[in-house]
Amino acid sequence: MTEAPAGSSEHRRPVVVPVIALLTVTVVGIVALLGGLEEVEVPPKTLSQGAVLDQGLYSTRFVEARVTVEKGELTFEEDKRFVEMVFDVTNLGDETMSVGMPPAKPDQAGFGSSFANSLVRITPAIKEGKGPFTFALAEEDQTNQLHPGTTTKVVVRYRLDAGERPPEQMTLDVATFAYEPGFQDETVRWQMVTEQAGEKWVPTVQAKVTLPVKTGGSA
Description:
The structure is a single chain. By secondary structure, this protein is mostly beta strands. The protein has one helix at residues 19-33; strands at residues 45-48, 52-54, 58-70, 80-91, 97-98, 119-123, 133-138, 141-143, 145-146, 151-159, 169-174, 177-181, 188-192, 194-197, 200-203, 207-214. It has a single domain, classed as Sandwich (Immunoglobulin-like), CATH 2.60.40. Strands 1, 2, 3, 4, 6, 7, 8, 10, 11 and 16 form a 10-stranded mixed sheet that branches. Strand 14 and strand 15 form a beta hairpin. Helix content is 7%, strand content 42%. The protein has 1 helix and 16 strands.
């Protein structure tokens, strides 16, 4: 029996290429085609009524949006109608925080750590002079405090003009917070997650929450 000549295909041993190596080559090739290793922008979560969002410093349940009516105390006083957005907010930090106020514009949210400061955009926009007004409820009394480890009902609302129809829905652009060092110093604290937009730093919108507006009811 003669040996197979050199270069013959007989008895040639197969070369085993690990699967992980093939996957690595494939991924690198795809990344190269897409223009290199770049961060992929993650779109905001789309949430609706009843959803719960972990905001780092707060855990927030988006309860509802509704129209409420405050009856005039005197016979000649007009009733006041409001659109209210209601939240169950749990302070996950170690310090008492404030309810705060939504910013007039997203780039004015700054570095505040109050709850309402994270509602960086409200759509439809609230008319000047009509709000927003914010408060929390503690045993039916209004307060501005959110105590650690406690879930508190928070209301953000604005007033409707006489005869004005409420919107069908409210949409909120919501930011989150991270416990990390500041820009100017290394003090670790809760601060809003931001991103650079041109020469400004603006809040990163982590979720867009849409709430249908319920009509009827009284305050």
